[in-house]
Specification:
By secondary structure, this protein is of the alpha/beta class. Helices cover about 40% and strands about 25% of the residues. It has a domain of about 160 residues: RecF/RecN/SMC, N-terminal domain (Glutathione S-transferase Yfyf (Class Pi), Chain A, domain 2). The strands form three sheets. A six-stranded antiparallel sheet has the order 2-1-4-5-6-7, covered by helices on one side. The protein has a six-stranded mixed sheet with strand order 8-12-13-3-14-15, with helices on both faces. The protein has a three-stranded antiparallel sheet with strand order 9-10-11. The longest helix has about 35 residues. The relative contact order is 0.17.
Length: about 375
Amino acid sequence: MSLQDANQALVRPLISRLTLRDFRSYVALDIRPSARLVALTGENGAGKTNILEAISMFSPGRGLRRAEIGQCARRAGPGGFAVSIEADIRGDGVQLGHGYEPAGQDAATRRFRIDRAPVSSARAFADYVNVLWQTPAMDGLFSGPAGERRRFLDRLTLGADADHGARVARLERALRNRNRLLEDQGDSRWLSAAEQEIASLGVAVASARLDTTERLSALIEAGRNDASPFPHAVIRLEGDLERMLVEEPAFTVEERYRATLAESRRRDAAAGRTLIGPQTSDLVVFHGPKGVAAQDCSTGEQKALLTGLVLAHARLVAAMSGRSPLLLLDEAAAHFDSRRREALYEELENFGGQVWMTGADPELFASLSDRADIFTVAPGTVERR
């Protein structure tokens, strides 16, 4: 199958209706877009990002702000919220719903529904939509701490493997458990059991991250264009387990890691944390055309590099799942010059999936007036322009 045929065969979900109740700044909201490009414009604080966050709740995890679920409820509201999207998928409609009810006599409850039938978690939404995003909080990714890049890589991995987030969460809990056992000088049998769990989960997490990095690198290399305003990235994952996984089968690496954990108890107890494992790995990124580490690039170059990486990941998710993801771009075009901004819009149109964008200045989207649904956002309200 040619690349053109593969692109034509993609399922391209389109949100045809988004409704909110008591979510963030909205008492109620009902938006009905019809275009592949959707632009939300309005003053800072008007509620544009709240709309993107509502859509991001249909992915595994905590959404694009990583907020505690109760924080998403409207402050002056009853304490809960409801979000619903109606998606058109090859002519067939599906309704996805996500709600939260505050604690009363029973514990606080999250509810998930597909066509009004309850499902157990947001993981079930991944059978219908994939949701990816870029936010201003990611602008310092390349110069920030390694933990932020690991979180970014986990989000990339989650885009193609909806179970990855649960594995990462289980690994974090297992590591905390081992740290407590070391601090309390716990029974060696309990430590051995904890280390066996960490070894199994650690290798699974490292393998998934490594697979995503390698697939993304191959896709970027295949489509590289040194003249593009969005420079291609050269990426690699650095870590002890990842180096071993390149050379040895997973079951061998798991046993070696378990043995290393047992040998490192005294050192890890002194440090107060586990010093070896995927929780210490780092995603290293270079500006491909220049061959310069991303952290040493200018702010504008880093922004363009990040956007190019997000777009490449969206193409990877589409290729792996057979379904174009919903892409949320919060203020992504605000700091680009007109040439790079128009190049971004061209990339998004070629991408073919539905894209929701925000920007405070309406002029950012002036050239899209005949190609996009443009909405003006004011506190609590949204109107089509």
